[in-house]
Amino acid sequence: MTERDQPILEVRNLSKYYEMGGSFVDSLLGRKQEVKAVESVDFELYKGETLGVVGESGCGKTTLGRSLLRLIEPTDGSIIYRQEQEDGTREEIELTDLSSSALRGLRRDLQYIFQDPFASLNPRMTVGDIVGEPLDIHNLASGEERNERVRELLEIVGLSPSHAYRYPHEFSGGQRQRIGIARALAVDPEIIVCDEPVSALDVSVQAQILNLLEDLQDEFDLSYIFIAHDLSVVEHISDRVAVMYLGEIAEAAPSERLFASPKHPYTEALLSVIPEPDPNWVGNKILLEGDVPSALTPPDGCRFHTRCHRIIPPEEYDIDQDAWESLRNLKLRVPDASSVPDLITFGRKGELVEDEAIEELSRLDEILRSAFEIPSPLSDPTAEDHLSEVVELLHGEGLDAAGETLDELFVSPCETVSPELIETERLHQVSCLLYDDEYRSGGLEVPQTQSDAVADD
Amino acid sequence: MSTERGQIQIKGFHAETVEDREGLSEWTDEKDTEIPSRWVLIGRQLVRDRLALIGALFVAFMLFWALFSRPLSVMGTTIQPFEAVPYDPTRTGVGDRYESPSLAHPFGTDRLGRDLFSRVMYGTRFSVTIGIIVTAIAASFGVVYGGVSGYFGGRIDDVLMRIVDMVFAFPGLVLALVIVSMLGRGYWQLVAAFTLFGWAGYARLIRGEILKVKQNEYVLAAKALGARDRKVLFRHIVPNAIAPVIVQATLAIGGVVIGVAALGFLGVGFAPGTPEWGTILDAEKGTVVAAGDEWRWWATVFPGLMIFIFVMAMNMIGDAVNDALDAQNETNVDNMGPQG
Amino acid sequence: MTLLEVNNLTVRFYTAEGVVTAVDDLSFTIDRGEKFGIVGESGAGKSVSALSVLRLIENPGRIESGEILLDGENLLEMSDKEIRKVRGNRVSMIFQDAQTALNPVYTVGEQISEPIRHHLDYSESEAKERAIELLDTVGIPDPQTRYSDYPHEFSGGMQQRAVIAMALSCDPDLLIADEPTTALDVMTEAKILNELDRLAEEFDTAVQLITHDLGVIAEVCDHVMVMYAGQPVETASVDDLFYDPKHPYTVGLMASIPRIGAGDTRLQTIPGVMPDLIDVPTGCTFHPRCPYAEDVCTQKEPGLVDPATGTEVGADADRGASCLAYTGDLANDLTFDVTVGDAGQSVGGESDD
């Protein structure tokens, strides 16, 4: 990876919100909901490097990639591209301010490779026309020169020049992906956003394409933004990796460092569950609670707090993270439950119970604690008192009253404070309160290197 | 047992060996399947589908008459000098009134002694060409209109589609009737009347198709390359969305012919005496209603039969085109045998 | 004890483009309670081999020959009525796409209780009770309410859990899972695999797991069969397969997966693509892509042999590889090396019979 003084692409505060229910009537009635697909993302890309962007589906990584090139209009933020001039200096261009015609010109420098090799090639055009199209659009070559260039591009990506006269459907997935790469290369770009370029391909073909991308990077000094959900692919190809969760960057670090010692609890969990092609490998898998929350109603505070296994306990109680995690789970599930027996099934160890089984207060207390793995008693006497109060309310008045009390008495800073992206080491940024001096106290566990991470599932 | 990842490493599997060596056997992984173009597919389907083939032969037969029945001149110069009909279709008294079909007059004669065979065959020039011209204009305009609407979406789509809704709010034939009575009778007036409401169907059809096609990544890819909207729309989207429009247009030609005939029958199409099928029917309807002692069936049956045959033929062709393009869509999704 | 025995199964599809031999002379056995993996790339015939077990091959496909013995009974000779009693009852199946496996117009609960009522003759209320229990077992919270939810109200992971509940509803002997986690995110995948593993123990069910992901195979399976172009190329216990692969295709597959922590080495690849099953290469179907191929490979078709002795093996072989290197037909050795750990301790490869 080359680290010249200034990044070639600098992204600040980039956000993209989608409006839901956007029909005419809805907008008249003010019935609008926003999906915050990408929120306040900051990163930079250096010349010649590969920045991996990973995350689960719906985390906003594709939206991010597309807003970068303004294939979809970002809602807010700035994208600065430093274009190389004739004299070797670089001129700053603010992509979000460009008119659409100026932007069309810039497409020569910024290119995109798509995920689906079947859907990304027009079935009614020959391969030659597909690869030659960018040459036509930007008037880069015409006539015999154009055809010559098309043949050359096909050879660069490992296809035969005679393929120019064929149609996309005559090719296999891997070959089609090569055609897509040749098309992106035609304009001799500086930056290519690769959006899951290998996820639709078979393992052996995937390796061919990854090698091709690496070779091309060396040959043409390309910078890649490599979006993928497959962590082992990202680890292989990236110099740096940004991990996204619900539209925000949770952690960004040089690839090796991120995979060896993740700092964000989400990264830690995500890395721990990658299936390892080695039957003798025994990892401590951290299985996160529940599913990723809806982007329509992302959690307040840290977006990850609803699933975090290292959530910071409230300052006023002296309880450990595990116990607090259990309490948090209880607190989060109460509003979802339709009855007390239902609530119990939400617990990690929760089983179906009959109404009669929890008629007695002490029995309810016991079942609830074992369902949610809450220690009995809690190490902090005040917390224990408060919990008992909640269980009594649950027994006497039901879910709503208990829920309100839980919300009042047990509040983690993670639920209220939105963490900033903090640089803990050079180029290693984390968005987690565990690394914020204000919230960090001595006893908290932070993720260790992978091999000796503490299992807690 | 190990907690370290990436322990197993494999060395010595050299792909280059394969790339460098000559192929060991004749076998290659090149697929040499070709997809035929749309027109070839339609042609093949027409040959395979007997009914459609008969339809196509009928249409070709009628087109022959449309072209060669009478000399054709454009702006004073004659471009087609042949005259295939035996009599001048407008000349009265080439035979007696209501002569029944005979060798001299295969379809008989009408109330003014005009040769019905000449009239009916010459009539193809009006009916069939109006059908084709109306459909061509309406479909072209509809494709552009619906294309713009579907491609840009948003407010533009809202406004454009409300206009389409307005056109649909009028019964088509009534609208055509109103227009003709405003513009007067005549060939181009009729063309105008039918295109003015005909395009809306195509616009709506292609808009729906475009909404689907524009989801494809190759559309985004073209934008990412810096292509202008016009090019994205007409090079990447429309060619992939046009198939249903072709089918619809084929079927619609027959519909327009019926429409023109209907207006003719209502007496608002062409000037009376024009040998257009509907107008002939209108003039001869007396033979059906007040048949008197003898029903002169030939005066109405032959023009009516022509309308019927033409519309049937176009429907059969339309079905075949539909089948051909449907099959093509299936090969497009690449179900080359089972997966997995 | 053998639960399923497949002998010389051949399945062909008669398509407009030609005859596709999707599965060619396939034999394998699955023991009771065993977790049997089938791995291969798309077009290898993995799914077809699974669908054949339930006789779910549809037109234009046909099971041409072979036998499929479930507890000694040949499924291919059963009447339609008998095979329907097997499906969903003794053998059940999970598909890749849970969303399409669930019918959107019925509630999830109805779909789970349906096979229970059908196969086990439970009354409506008993079936409901059992379905709720199952939903709870597969880890769906609030099962009473969830029972009457429609599939679209479930997340992807939940849907797959519901499908698993459906598959387990009649306590099957064999559960066929066709790429059960491919459509899921890695976190959900881990949870589903975990669940599948636990449930297979709990219900004492044998699992036939079909996947392209070697990581999933390593995690779940006891025994693995590698398929290429409709044929089995290697069969081995999971340890042997990963530490001592014998077939060049297996080796290539293992070499081309990026491994975390393996350093920044260039990936090795298998050149070319899997052949179209209409027109497969002569001799060994892998020869156009195999770096060790020699002229003999284009003529002689290798059978599944014991790599130690070179003698042909049957369906129940513990170890088998179909490569001419083990029958003494090749002039050169297969020169690859499998090393474990940084020390580079060599454990396998290098056949030199």
Question: The CATH topology of the largest domain in chain C is what?
Answer: Rossmann fold
- End-to-end span of chain B in angstroms? 33 Å
Number of E strands of chain C? 13
What is the H/E string of chain C?
EEEHEEHEHHHHHEHEHEEHHEEE
Q: In the CATH classification, which architecture of the largest domain in chain C applies? A: 3-Layer(aba) Sandwich
Ranges of chain C with pLDDT <50 over ≥5 residues? 348-353
Major beta sheet summary of chain C: 7 strands, mixed
Q: What is the CATH C-level name of chain B?
A: Mainly Alpha
* Terminal-residue CA separation of chain C: 32 Å
Helix count, DSSP H or I runs of 4 or more residues of chain C: 11
CATH homologous superfamily classification of the largest domain in chain C:
P-loop containing nucleotide triphosphate hydrolases
Quote the average pLDDT of chain C: 88
| Helical content class of chain C | 25-40%
Helix content of chain B: 55-70%
Regarding CATH, which class of the largest domain in chain C? Alpha Beta
Sequence of strands across the biggest β-sheet of chain B? 2-3
Tell me what you see in this structure.
The complex is a heterotrimer of chains A (457), B (340) and C (353). With 457 residues, chain A is α/β, with parallel strands linked by helices. Chain A folds into 2 domains: 9-269, Rossmann fold (3-Layer(aba) Sandwich); 321-411, no CATH class. Chain A contains 16 helices and 12 strands. Chain A has an 8-stranded mixed beta sheet, with helices on both faces. Chain B has one domain: MetI-like (MetI-like fold, Orthogonal Bundle), CATH 1.10.3720. Chain C is of the alpha/beta class and 353 residues long. Chain C folds into 2 domains: 1-90 and 175-353, Rossmann fold (3-Layer(aba) Sandwich), CATH 3.40.50.300; 98-171, no CATH class. In chain C, the strands form 3 sheets. A 7-stranded mixed beta sheet of chain C has the order 6-7-8-3-9-10-11, sandwiched between helices. A 4-stranded antiparallel beta sheet of chain C has the order 2-1-4-5, with helices on one face. A two-stranded antiparallel sheet of chain C has the order 12-13. Chains in contact: A-B, A-C, B-C. The A-B interface holds A 24, 66, 69, 71, 103-108, 111-112, 114-116, 118-125, 133-134, 137-138, 167, 169-172, 180, 183, 187, 274, 276-278, 280-284, 450-451 and B 1-5, 7-8, 29, 31-35, 158, 216-218, 220-228, 231, 235-236, 239-240, 331-332, 334.
